[in-house]
């Protein structure tokens, strides 16, 4: 079991000033689309949080999700939020092993029945009775069903737990499925991404600690605050898309000028996540900023959806775009809308959410 030190004591021990803590609370408020006036409430709630018991189960996965959360250069406020919870069971992080580890899980389940938060990363193999992945002789399937019974809510961390992810990809030899395919009677928050963004994980935990409730979710069970807009909508290269300026290869003039990577297969328009705003490695960069298109890893079936290097469809040219804007406004119809429809149809066929007519709202060249 974790110790029960309060968060202020823990922050002080790590040399984190109150000012920095409040700055972090401000960032969380922004990320969760809350007004600035909520910052003191978030700070007070985190400081007073009862440190709910969290049982974290890792199933069929690559440990990238845990690595994402824990591999920071120095103790960050994000990682310290983990100290605001009582992480009572986590295969990778706990010191206990063997029977002692399983005893810790069962003890936390008994002591906090109906109140603990269950975090799951990895998919659940259901083929042949679930024999493809077991922990302490218990199949992932049985362990999930058993542990979910007393959970207040479940957080499915990573695309594997949220949608099946890589293990679910064709031909899916283990019969891998998502948490929501097995558990139907509990609130489930999906934090997709392969791996998911650390601050999104901690943001959801902070929201739960602050309000004692799960955040507003989208149609795929993801927190709207982080997954409400596409990568494309928040991408700093978006003005080049609007101007019809595209890199054609990874080393041409367009690539050197930082133009849009759409024609090189970027899945930003059909991918919903916060990479373009939170970025990675403590806000250093994200794939598109590093010169590679988005793979769409936070969407269902992203691995089977087609080539990572094939454009979703023919992008709109400035002229076509202007016509489409007019058409969307009801002035003309026909070709421009058809062009837009090709775009959305390709996205739909790939199993992704489609881009919306919002794409057509801005005139050519206008920055978002
Ligand atoms: Fe999946 Fe996570 Fe990708 Fe890996 O636990 S979402 S394969 S980063 O590790 O589950």
What does this entry look like structurally?
The chain has about 375 residues and is an alpha/beta fold. The protein has three domains: about 5-225, Rossmann fold; about 230-305, Irregular (Cytochrome-c3 Hydrogenase, Chain A, domain 2), CATH 4.10.480.10; about 320-360, no CATH class. The chain has 18 helices and nine strands. The chain has helices at about 5-15, 20-30, 40-50, 65-70, 75-80, 100-110, 140-150, 160-165, 165-170, 180, 200-210, 225, 230-235, 240-245, 255, 275-280, 320-330, 335-350; strands at about 55-60, 85-90, 115-120, 125, 135, 140, 150-155, 175, 190. A hairpin with a 2-residue loop joins strand 5 (about 135) and strand 6 (about 140). The longest helix is centred in the last third of the chain and has 15 residues, at about 335-350. The N and C termini lie far apart (about 50 Å). The structure holds ligand FSX. Ligand FSX binds near residues 121 and 158.
Report a brief summary of the structure.
The protein contains 18 helices and nine strands. It is of the alpha/beta class and 368 residues long. It has three domains: 221 residues, Rossmann fold (3-Layer(aba) Sandwich); 74 residues, Cytochrome-c3 Hydrogenase, Chain A, domain 2 (Irregular), CATH 4.10.480.10; 44 residues, no CATH class.
The CATH class assignment of the largest domain is Alpha Beta
Largest sheet: 5 strands, parallel
**Beta strand count:** 9
Q: Name the hetero compounds present.
A: ligand FSX
Named CATH topology of the largest domain: Rossmann fold
- What would you report as the Rg, rounded to the nearest angstrom? 22 Å
**Range of helix content:** 25-40%
| Binned strand content | 5-15%
Structural class label = alpha/beta
**CATH superfamily placement of the largest domain:** NADH:ubiquinone oxidoreductase-like, 20kDa subunit
Sheet with most strands: strand arrangement? 2-1-3-7-9
Q: Judging by the overall fold, what is the CATH architecture of the largest domain?
A: 3-Layer(aba) Sandwich
User: Which segments are poorly predicted (pLDDT under 50) over 5 or more consecutive residues?
Assistant: 317-368
Total DSSP helices? 18
Shape, per Cα inertia axes: globular
Q: Helix-strand pattern, N to C?
A: HHHEHHEHEEEEHEHHEHEHHHHHHHH
Mean pLDDT: 82
């Amino acid at each position: 079991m974790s110790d029960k030190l309060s968060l202020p004591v823990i922050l002080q021990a790590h040399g984190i000033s109150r000012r920095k803590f409040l700055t972090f609370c401000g960032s969380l408020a922004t990320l969760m689309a809350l007004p600035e006036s909520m910052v003191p409430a978030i700070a007070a709630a985190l400081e007073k949080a009862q440190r709910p018991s969290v049982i974290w189960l890792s199933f069929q996965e690559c440990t990238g999700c845990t690595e994402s959360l824990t591999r920071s250069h120095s103790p960050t406020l994000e990682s310290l939020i983990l100290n605001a919870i009582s992480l009572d069971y986590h295969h990778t992080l706990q010191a206990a092993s063997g029977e002692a580890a399983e005893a810790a899980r069962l003890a936390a389940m008994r002591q906090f029945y109906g109140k603990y938060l269950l975090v799951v990363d990895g998919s659940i193999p259901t083929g042949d009775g679930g024999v493809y992945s077991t922990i302490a002789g218990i199949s992932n399937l049985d362990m999930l069903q058993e542990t979910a019974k007393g959970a207040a809510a479940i957080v499915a961390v990573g695309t594997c737990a949220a949608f099946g992810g890589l293990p679910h990809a064709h031909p899916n030899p283990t019969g891998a499925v998502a948490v929501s395919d097995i558990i139907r009677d509990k609130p489930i928050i999906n934090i997709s991404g392969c791996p998911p963004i650390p601050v999104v994980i901690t943001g959801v935990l902070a929201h739960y600690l602050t309000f004692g409730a799960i955040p507003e979710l989208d149609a795929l069970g993801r927190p709207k605050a982080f997954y409400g807009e596409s990568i494309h909508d928040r991408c700093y290269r978006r003005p080049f898309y609007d101007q019809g300026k595209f890199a054609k290869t990874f080393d041409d003039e367009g690539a050197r000028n930082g133009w849009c990577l759409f024609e090189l297969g970027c899945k930003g328009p059909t991918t919903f996540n916060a990479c373009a705003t939170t970025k990675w490695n403590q806000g250093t960069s994200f794939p598109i900023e590093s010169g590679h298109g988005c793979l769409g890893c936070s969407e269902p079936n992203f691995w089977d959806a087609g080539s990572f290097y094939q454009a979703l469809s023919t992008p709109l040219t400035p002229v076509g775009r202007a016509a489409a804007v007019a058409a969307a406004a009801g002035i003309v119809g026909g070709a421009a809308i058809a062009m837009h429809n090709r775009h959305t149809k390709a996205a739909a066929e790939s199993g992704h959410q489609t881009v919306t007519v919002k794409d057509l709202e801005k005139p050519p060249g206008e920055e978002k």
